[in-house]
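seq as requested:
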Amino acid sequence: MGANSVNTCEDTMETKTIVSGKLGKIEYADADIITLSAPILGFPDLSDFILISNEKSYPFLWFQSVQDKDICFILVEPELFIPEYTPKLNKREAKILGAEEETKMKLFAIVVVPDQPKNATMNLRAPLIVNVEKKLAKQVILEEDKWQIKTPLFNK
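struct tokens:
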């Protein structure tokens, strides 16, 4: 693999490996890590993740913790399922994420897949907002009541 021969791990393009409980062996570089500005609800000790997408799982993405190999969230871009989903990010949240323009932001819903995948839901009330350029993310709790925590992913 053409990893740098510098002896420090900091700020190099050195490839690291994690063996995910869900995805198997994953190689990544420090530059791939997305840092949460605040933890995802229920996971107070996890701040560093990598976003993984591939053609086989599209439109679903994986948000794999690099600190805990067994924590991996399934994400989806909610507007693919609900085009009218366009929540507004308040100025404080935008500032935390270093957003000068909203175009730099990607919005994801965390998906929960029960035993019956057709009953999968997505959390539209607390989306994950990612500043792709700055590799920062935050789960935001929306004030708008119309978005629900357990929105059906598929029409039944």
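Residues 1-11 have pLDDT under 50 and may be disordered.
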